[in-house]
## 1
Amino acid sequence: MEDKLSASSKLAYQNKRLKVLLEKYKQSHHLQNALIQLSEQASTVAELTLLYPAIHDILQKYVPSKSFYVVLSNQDTQSLELSYFSDEKDGIAVALNQTNSFDEGATGYVFKQGKTTCFTKQQMQDAAAKGLFKALGTPAEHWVGVPVYQERNIIGVLAAQSYDTRKGYSDQQIQLLEVMSLYLATAIERVKKRELLESEVKIRTRALTQSNDALNLEIEQRKRALQRQQILFKISELATQAKNLNDAYIKIHEIIKTITYAENLYIALYDKESGWISFPYCVDEFKDNTQPRRFAKGYSELVISTEETQLIHPCRAKKLIEKGVVQRAKPVKKEQMATSWLGAPLKTSQGVMGLIVCQAYYNKHIFNQDDCELITFVSHQIAAVLQTKLANQSIKKSHQELEFRVSEKTKELRQTNLHLQMQMEERKKIEQQLYHDAHHDSLTSLPNRSLFLTQLEKTLQHFQRFPEHHFAVLFIDLDKFKDINDQLGHHAGDQFLISVAELFSQCIREHDLLARLGGDEFVILLTHLTEPQQAEDVANRIIDLMKKPFSLKGTSLQSGASIGITYSKHDYTHTDEIIRDADAAMYYAKNSGRNRYELFHPLLSQSVSQQELHILHHLDALPMSFRSSEIITLDEQHQSESLFEAFGEHPILGFTSFDILKKFASDKEQHLEVELQLLQRAYAQALEANVSMALVPCSCLLLEPHEFTLFTEVLSKQIGQSQLCLLFDEQEIRHACATQLENLKKLPHLGYSIGLNNFARDRCELNLLTDVNFDYLLLSSTFSKRILQQESYDFQLQGVLAITKLKTIKVIAKGPSILNFRTLLDKHGLAFFVGKQHSLVCAEQSPTSTTQSQLS
């Protein structure tokens, strides 16, 4: 029996516990559902005014809250303001946007205390009696106020009240209200942000709408402006495209149709002097043609007299007739009366010349102010076109009358003109012959000095404007021409000059100029040059041609040509300077052995005393130094060889290479002495620089019999690890005598290394490579560049490379900018290049200080 009682009490305890757990679960479930619904409302509701009723609906499911309100703090006024109010008895007693006394009531008390407060009716009366707050509104049986917090700051109060004594607030319900208040602040903030975002969106939308409206208005205005511009273009084209006035009227009608109703249109012209109005163009439903009339009181006359566009509808037409402004010559049928009439004056600078009119019948179209503005706008341009066309028509009519008169006169003058034309053609031929005779040599028919100087002056002026367009002048003097005249006579000399002129013409291009200055002097102007070598090529061709014997009267003659060359430079200001320099270079070539060419140097035109000239020509008085250039490969790997070139500091020429200075040596002995000294110093500096092979340029003077002995004696005294490679210029070797060539061939047998310098500068002679055992071959910069420009030079290079490979000759390319092209030259088979120059210490100072002071 006791066991049964114990089991029954356990079961009752468990049931009670399960009910408590069920109540807690139910409470948690309600709370969870309420929070989920609150979160959904906060996410979907767009305004706070809609959020509070939604919260109220949620609370009514779980809490007695038919009477419910929300009060929030206003940060600006520091007072409590009603945000939502719903009451069973009081209704909405206070407007939401008006001030109220919530600060003084129970709501304000909860806001100040900052904690949840629950009152019964009696408790609220007691608290009010104690002065804690004022009793406001209808007393409720149960009232609960819950503070609303945002982070740690209280922002308002959520209050619920019940007027039913049986419906109070349990702890679970109060807890639900407290949890709701925690999420209410977040929900309010989210809705406020959404309201703010929507407000900004509305503001932006309104701004965009206004901007879009303004843009549409601007687009419409631009379309209208573009339309007017296109109309203007079309009207302006009438002046050139319209064949005649009738064609112009038709095109004007087509243009008006594009801007307004113009099924019925006429153009009237007003002659102020005669007082008549004519209608050259009319397209109308009722009138095919309108006859001219005197100026009267019609619609057209109203436009002409007022000089303004007139828009006339039936009502205005009636008023104009009643006032007498418009008068009808004869009645017009009602069906032929225009229901809308628009006329614009054709105004020019001379006044109104007429008008253009559009009219509509049967109310097919009612012209408005826009039509009025458009037709006024185009009428001014139409007037200008018509004025031009009318003037042209008048001119054309006058021309036709004049042409008739002229044709009559022409018949009379034709015979006279034929006779005069024959005389003029004869005179023209005479003038051309006189001009040719005045500007050409009578013997060779080449341009003479006058024509040459004129062309040279134009070329010099062109060069001064375009410095990249270089030119050169070649002054040519024939060798032994006096002997030919003396031996064979002047007639044979003239024939020789004619033959020479023909040969020289074959050596130049079509745009170059060959002229005869007189006697045996010729001059050539070469234009469009890219490098000075091109002028030297022409000189070499002339010299080679002049080496061939001439046959005259069965006699074989041997002549030659001494040529002086001057190249364009910015110092030239007059043609006389150019001729002077070319002439000086020619005389230097003639004095240096004839049948050769020389480039102009400043020394050739220096006017100095005999003593100064003697000093200038002493090479041993000039400071000398060397420049070393290492031989490198494509990838800039340095080789064991270096090129040593001598330079001297000349008082006139400046820092100049020894190859140029040696031409101005006072005598052969001085030249030999200086060059042997330079050779010894080059060898010494090569030893100091630890160079295994020094390539040193030498002149062919060292290969002459007496000089060769001294040359080999100097070489034999040079001892040490470094070696010298003696470089001889290809042009000097080509003109060397048999003894010099024989001595050149002896050098390899004596154990010395030799090389050929500046190879293929003006021609490529492979026999030099086969006849002499050279160790090095230095290609000229001109040939290296031309390999890249012309295919024929590449063929020559391949022949050179084939021979040098067989004879194990090392080929090196050189030039001032050769390093910029070495990648391209490598593709043609060249592997070695002269690198950048390095200045070495001074090889020799001036031995005589007094001489140097005199020069300075």
## 2
Amino acid sequence: MFSDPIEFKELFLKKLEMMYGKTFPESTSQDQFFTLGHLIREYISMNWIHTNEQYRFNKQKQVYYLSIEFLLGRLLRQNLTNLGIYDIVDKGLQDLGIDLAEMEEVEHDAGLGNGGLGRLAACFLDSLASLNLPGHGYGIRYKHGLFEQKIVNGFQMELPEQWLRHGHVWEVRKSDLTVEVPFWGKVESYTEKDVLRFRHVDAEIVAAVPYDMPVVGFETSTVNTLRLWSAEPAAYKAGKDMMKYKRDTEAITEFLYPDDTHEEGKILRLKQQYFLVSASIRSILDSYLYRNGDLKELHENISIHINDTHPVLAIPELMRVLLDEYSFEWEEAWEITTNTFAYTNHTTLSEALERWPIRIFQPLLPRIHMIVNEINERFCRELWKEYPGEWKRIEDMAIISHDEVKMAHLAIVGSFSVNGVAKIHTEILKQREMNLFYQYYPGKFNSKTNGITHRRWLLNSNPSLSNLITSSIGEEWIKDPSKLVKLKEYHHDTAFLKDLYDVKQGNKQKLAGLIYESNGIIVDPSSIFDIQVKRLHAYKRQLMNVLHILHLYNRCVEDPGFDFHPRTFIFGAKASPGYYYAKKIIKLIHSVADLVNDHPLVKGRIKVVFLENYRVSLAEEIIPAADLSEQISTASKEASGTGNMKFMMNGALTLGTLDGANIEILEQVGRDNIFIFGLTAEEVMKYQHHGGYYAMEYFHYDTRIKKVLNQLIDDTLPDAGDHFETIYDSLLTENDQFFVLRDFDSYVRVHEQAGKAYENKEHWSRMCLQNIANSGYFSSDRTIEQYAKDIWGIAQGSLTK
């Protein structure tokens, strides 16, 4: 389409005039961005079409990745890089007086996710395309994504996120492929050729309209597809309240994770989940039938992957289609279904394993309820044969019990593969959370440690470090991240270590500028940038971090001679709108910041910064500047984590517990290049099973803890009021569920250790080098290769440039 800056510039100017009917000098930055986006999408289109044609022609086995979240972020830089035309476009725009970096800022983050779950899904799609693997995503096109976070007087406020205000340049609406999704109504039975059949009647129909986005591989011609569904009113049916129907329909894809603290919100969440899977299953089957034609061989030609429990209703939905629309018998339909689906579990928290009350489930999804009930009945009969008389075991394993549908149980029973996302996570599932299922289905369980796409999180987000790496070991690492291990050759190269240190300082200076611009706080780039950015949840223990800051403040006030390396503590996190405890922690962080930042006795040695509206594009600014990566979840609670990998890859040192993928980071870098503290998973689970932990003892016998907890409820903190009594009570009256006080002393000591290590710049840089050099293992390319080989059974195509 274009091969040099001059040709690009001519096409760009022509495209702009055709799209907007104005000359270049009259155009706005918005006009210019959308012109570039459309031009690049046209550049992609030929390979996109060719990829789909090749899949059809070769009849390659396909994988479809179903996820309620796809946290894409901005796509302009990623697409230009993967296409190999970034420099051409940059030079062409420079000739027109346009700064490409500034143009990138015009693009809104596609914030269709809340955290690691959605970002993992996005990384997986990137790796699938980059490895020439036939894999596509299905999700929801949320009009407002999660929410835009604003901080007002230290409190989180939620506003609708307006990422679609000006449209989305990368998507293509495919209204001709609209699918109808039924809710409510009733089920009628009828006889066909002496066989009892069922049909769903009097349903409220919602139109699922697909929007397709190209997923471009790095230096390959493969362009896979992410299909996002938008809920729109179907043909109007007389007798309905038209306006209510329109509002109810559009609400399905209005927001990610509607507040489910009330019945209406629960119904809406369940609607979202069925909407996603019903539309996706129909789309997958239509594509398959066009390509192959025999549904009896479905499981031999496709795999459908369920990313956590949200899309689990795809299992009974496929059964419904096979039974009701294609007249399969139950046994054959079940054989096909259970050999088609694979399931990834993302939590060890039992309360996070979804359960739906029958009172909601049955009326909303009457036919699906019938099928789930039949799956449960047949499964329980199987269990009775294996474990006769063991009523408690069967009750604990049942898909439906105590008037609830247990989604994780349905996922395990209806899938051929169940995987955890880190070694320890998988072992906890096998030995604790899903032990009964592991005993019954030992061959189903496997481990696939998460990964991140190194091209976005290192190559694109940290160009200064990427350039240093490439100038030292060549560019082979971009295609094969395991080649980063070559950096170990520079372990004793003082010149390289100084360059590495200077790169980090440059990134810290950039972040310091962003902090001043956004928060008006002056931070010292020579201080340790200690960063915790992630979803705000009690088990992730942002609370322990902020209590430690209070402890450091107390040391400064009590002892003017207290000697420690200055720290800048940086937080970024969103709390779910209905998660009031998490919102209190955000307020606490701000109150501590107000106390500490300008206190004369602290003298700038501690600064606390909360960067609002944490999102992918902000993470790309923060992560390259980190010295310490706070990964301090209660051991056994974090399934894996991917933030820990992003920080490691950018040369930050992990300060964390032996939890999730921290353990595998430790295995890669060695004990000398990571800061580990706190209880082990085994110790936490022992306390939980056998008791013996009494938070009040730590309050009474550790004066540091007593002081910081009392400061939550006395007049120490500005604008505290009674805001933090809930936190105080959770730690003492409710016995500190996540062992914050138990790990506090160990946390203080490991921080002291990290501070002393930072004083030796060359040694610190050597530790950073070891983290970068060993980070290639945590590329999502490696993860996807394992999924492709061990679970999906898909092979690479021949679409490389």
## 3
Amino acid sequence: MGTTTPPRTLAEALRARGDESLAGLLRARPDLLNPVPNGITQLATRAGTRASVVRALEHLDRFALQTAEALAVAPDPAPYDTLLSLLTGDGLDDGDQRDDAGAAVTAALPGALATLREQALVWGEDDRLRLVRTARELLAPSPQHPSPTGLGPTVAEATAGMSPGRLQEILAATGLPATHDPVSAVAALSALFTDRTRMAELLDTAPVEALSVLDRLVWGPPYGEVTPNPTPPVKWLRDRGLLLPVSTRTVVLPREAALHLRAGRAHRVPEPVPPVVPAAAERDPQAVDRAAAGQAFTALSTVEELLKLWNGGGPAILRAGGLSVRELKRAATALDVSEPIAAFWIELAYGAGLLASDGETDERYAPTPASDEWLDLSAEDRWTHLATAWLAATRTPGLVGGQDAKGRALSALGPELDRSAAPDVRRRVLALFAELPPGTAPETESLLRRLRWERPLRGAAPAAESADLRSRLALWTLNEAELLGITGRGALSAQARALLDEGEGTAAARLAPLLPDPLDHVLLQADLTAVAPGPLERPLADTLSVLADVESKGGATVYRFTPGSVRRALDAGQAAADLHAFLAAHSRTPVPQPLSYLIDDVARRHGHLRIGAASAYVRCDDEAVLNEILADRRSTGLRLRRLAPTVLASQADPGSLLEALRDMGYAPAAESAEGDVLITRAGARRTPPRTPPVPVPEGPPVPDDTLLGAAVRAIRAGDTAATVVRKDTSDGPSSTTPSGALPRTTPAETLATVQAAAMTGSTVWIGYVNADGAASQRVIAPVRVEGGFVTAYDHTADEVRTYPLHRITGVAELAEDGKG
């Protein structure tokens, strides 16, 4: 679609676009689709709203933004050559060698301008480029919001409201002919400041101190404060209009004068080319993959340890949400990591749907049912699940320990950790890694500069945060990627490249050969320890973690058998014979005699005492044991008394009584009301089914091609409905109905027209008033008319709808098929 005359408005420029171009606009600015505009005019209006323009500007790269900033200080409209001159300079500053930079700007400007046009921030032909008004207002200078270019207002803007007498004084001081017309005076002063020769002659007469004042203002901010009695250099500048008053104490360097001093450049350093990200180190790709795989295995072990730590019910949830500092420290100690790293693992497990709130009255965190399914997966599939969840998560563990905008502490698993820019930053950082050869680690500072070039404007963030949130997110991404095994030794691993480019299946296949195979055996030692020389198969690891305590981790895990750990296995329903058989089956070394004695000794005493609920009671067939307990001073707090020769009662609850007697060296067992021994299953607490936290999007989701096509058709149809040429119901010629006017026909004419359209398959234009009284215009293709209703395909809404005939105000046939 094209036009022979230049567009006069943004709407006309959009109307002249083809469907692919409109789809590109909606893809780049998906906020314009909510809801789908009812025509091109509404689309143009919405594209010019402040919120939408701000969002579009935030997604521009550095040079596209510099191009928009240059247009904001250029005349409106501006020719292409003027814009190019603002970005390259006028070439008259011989002392500044800018040939290479100018060539780069000249080569990059068409692309930047195309980006601005595609996003409807700039419209018009090259000889009349226009920045949309809202963007100009956002980027133009003002005392409250200085221009990003550092330029001040024009002479005309700065002298608005200045008295004619003051203008005459300035003209006289600069040697310009007097004029009583303020407009002519302003034009003469502007012409002087834009004339290179005359301006140079004027500055040659300036005192050296006055030139120093200009040097401080030329690159911004252009505003300065003056006293009622300014110094002679400032007075010299003010008398000649090089400093114009903004208020009684503030002056400004006018834009035309500043551009002369800058040799015509709007920016000190144009940046048409993205910064290169050089290599900081080059390593063997296979060594990188092995290092990343080792860290991936550590990540899996750490998350499994966290799930096991909270298996029987985790820490309580704070009233404001999240995890307390004390519980975070406790988790960090148990995982043997620092608190920030513990927060990362906790947030990762939460984001992957493995941890959640149990929803009980005494609300606590606990593993979800999905955690059991995750544990049943192969190691490589467990890793891809975690890595995929990390890539998409908007929750930001790096914020833990900081403060929000109101000065409140941000806690792990708290409600204020979502940052919508996090997924985009993570993927962009990894994409920059992927652009380097395999095994190459990028230079961190260069990577940050590249990210700042790609998104120089940041989105809204809490005031307490750093000004550059994206840089902080990038640094956190580097650390978290190394912890998770996405990178190894600072370079992107092959399995991570596959995850980004080919999906989880390929990534898992690349990782699998690099992970150690799980073992089905341990090495028992005479010092009551067992050494696992590698990862254990899950059933073996689960049973061993109940029977023994982990003493140390590393390349090999050391487990220690203690009376308490053996009792824990007996409490879980194991018998001594079961434990002996288990150790004999899974040990590559003979079972040491001390370990066999330990198991038999604990099993012989286990359950000799029985604890039940009275509040609580102790039952034992051996009266001497009960006498010994009563005589022990440590039992005083339990307030025991004998009910029978073999029964003691206590006012403590059964759990407290059980733990107290165990601390005294006994091995009691809990029993039910029927007298049966209660078996305690290790780690049986699970939350109800929970879905992982939904990432908070940075903006509206990018629509797919199907939705874009439907939206473009709907916009075209709505535009047709507003400007369509319809057949007049009289015998006169066709006419164009004014935009917003509903067609008017009698009920009989309406019925006859839609019936005819249904028979011929043609499209008609109707006016419709819904049940709320809202009137609208629609382009429909009737399919069936019966029972007082017309069923038709609505081109405006891009769907089939049914309309009551009595709500149709009128109908008109289109002069041509108006599907747009």
